[in-house]
Amino acid sequence: MALTREQMARRVARELEDGFYVNLGIGIPTLVANYIPDGIDVMLQSENGLLGMGRYPTDDELDPDMINAGKETVTARPGAAIFSSAESFAMIRGGHVDLTVLGAFEIDQEGNIASWMIPGKLIKGMGGAMDLVAGAENIICTMTHASKHGESKLLEKCALPLTGAGCINRVLTDLAYLEIKDGAFILKERAPGVSVEEIVEKTAGKLIVPDHVPEMTFVDE
Amino acid sequence: MAGFDKRVASYQEAMEGIESGMTVLAGGFGLCGIPENLIAEIKRRGVDNLTVVSNNCGVDGFGLGILLEDRQIRKILASYVGENALFERQMLNDEIEVVLTPQGTLAEKMRAGGAGIPAFYTATGYGTPIGEGKEVREFNGRHCILEEAIIGDFAIVKGWKADRYGNVMYRHTAQNFNPMAATAGKITVVEVEEIVEPGELEPSQIHTPGIYVDRIIQGTFEKRIEKRTVHS
C-alpha cells in the first residue's frame, strides 16, 4: 500500500534530531509537526520571520499580527524569536536551518527540483522555495512517486522549470524513501506492501537498488 | 514641522508628492503588517502606472488589491501573487506586468537598496527561469547570479509604535518586509498604531531608526485576517 499523507509525515519526522531548527513547507511537510518524536525538541522556522512557531491560537489568543508563512494565524512557543524577512532569509541562505521539508512536482537524478511552475497554468510564484532549496544543505522532498496516470515524477531530467539546481539529496514518496547521489536515485526503504518491482517500474530516472531494501514499519501511535 | 518631528497631520499630507509612474515599496506579508491606510490614500489620489514592490498583492477589495480596481499598478515585483481574482484576470490579459522574485531575494534587494549596495550575488535562482540572462559567477564552488538592488520613490510602511522622531517598532510577525522597505524609499512614510514622545521607546528595541523615516502618521487599522486558523 502506498503511504498515506499522515504516514509520510510520520516517516519524515523520524529524520528530526534533538535541537534541530526546521522549516516545513505547505502540505504534507506541515503535518510533520504533528509527529515530532517524544523526548526531542525542535524549533520550527517560518520564513515570514518567526523562529519557534507554536500551535494555532485559541479564539482568545487569535491575533492578526501573528501568522505563519502559509498566512495562517499561529502562536509563538516559549523561546521563540521574531524578526524581519531579510533576517529570516539570512538564516535560510546562510545555511543555519538544519532541515527543510518541502513538496515538489518533479525531482531528477541530478538533484534538480521543479516545484513552482507548470507552463500554461496560472503561475502564482515561488514564494521562499528557491531561497530554501538554494540555502539548505539538508532537504527532504515529499511527493507522490507518480502521477495519477502512472507517469513517474522521479526523472532523468526535470521537464518543468526548475526551483533549484542540484540541491536535493533525499526524497520521500508515497512508495519509497530514496537518496540521490552521483547522478542516481538510491532506493533505501519501501512502503509497507510495495514491491521493489513497482518502485522500479515507476522510477524513470536512474535507480540503484541495493540487495536488501527494508520495508518501513508504522506502529500505531 | 520642527527639527526631527516627522509627524504629518493627514493621510493626504502623508502621501504628498506621489505621482503616476513612480515606484512604491510596500511592507507586509499577505495581509499582515500592510500599510492599509496609505494604500487607501494612493487609491484616493488615482495615480496610476505605478511599479509596486511587495511580497504579495493583497486580496480582492483589501490591501494592494484595491489598487487593481482602477488599474493603478502597471508592474509588480512580488514572490507570490494571485490570491485575488482581479489580479489573475489582469495578469492573464497582460494588463499588469509581474516580475516574480524569490522571497529572500526580494527582501535582500530592498535591504541592499537601503544600504547603498547596488547589487549582490546569490545562489538563489541559479539554473531556474529567474537566473536567465543574469550574470553568473562561481564562489566557493557554487554558481551565483547577480541581483540588483531596488530603491523606491516612496516606501509605505506599517509600524506598531513610533516616537515623533520616526523611530519605529513593529509588532509580532507584522514586521516582515517593513524594516527593509523603510530603508529603501526616497520618501519613507510610516503609519503606526500609536505615536509616543521621544524617550518613551527603549532605544535598543527600535527596529527602524528614525534616520530612514520622513513622515509618520497615527492611524486606525482593520487588520483583516487572511486565514483564520484556531486551536480547538
From TrEMBL, chain A:
<keyword id="KW-0808">Transferase</keyword>
<dbReference type="InterPro" id="IPR004164">
    <property type="entry name" value="CoA_transf_AS"/>
</dbReference>
<dbReference type="Pfam" id="PF01144">
    <property type="entry name" value="CoA_trans"/>
</dbReference>
<dbReference type="GO" id="GO:0008410">
    <property type="term" value="F:CoA-transferase activity"/>
</dbReference>
<protein>
    <submittedName>
        <fullName>Dehydrocarnitine CoA transferase subunit B</fullName>
    </submittedName>
</protein>
<dbReference type="InterPro" id="IPR037171">
    <property type="entry name" value="NagB/RpiA_transferase-like"/>
</dbReference>
<dbReference type="InterPro" id="IPR004165">
    <property type="entry name" value="CoA_trans_fam_I"/>
</dbReference>
<dbReference type="InterPro" id="IPR012791">
    <property type="entry name" value="3-oxoacid_CoA-transf_B"/>
</dbReference>
<comment type="similarity">
    <text>Belongs to the 3-oxoacid CoA-transferase subunit B family.</text>
</comment>
Automatic annotation (TrEMBL), chain B:
<dbReference type="InterPro" id="IPR012792">
    <property type="entry name" value="3-oxoacid_CoA-transf_A"/>
</dbReference>
<dbReference type="GO" id="GO:0008410">
    <property type="term" value="F:CoA-transferase activity"/>
</dbReference>
<protein>
    <submittedName>
        <fullName>Dehydrocarnitine CoA transferase subunit A</fullName>
    </submittedName>
</protein>
<dbReference type="InterPro" id="IPR004165">
    <property type="entry name" value="CoA_trans_fam_I"/>
</dbReference>
<keyword id="KW-0808">Transferase</keyword>
<dbReference type="InterPro" id="IPR037171">
    <property type="entry name" value="NagB/RpiA_transferase-like"/>
</dbReference>
<dbReference type="Pfam" id="PF01144">
    <property type="entry name" value="CoA_trans"/>
</dbReference>
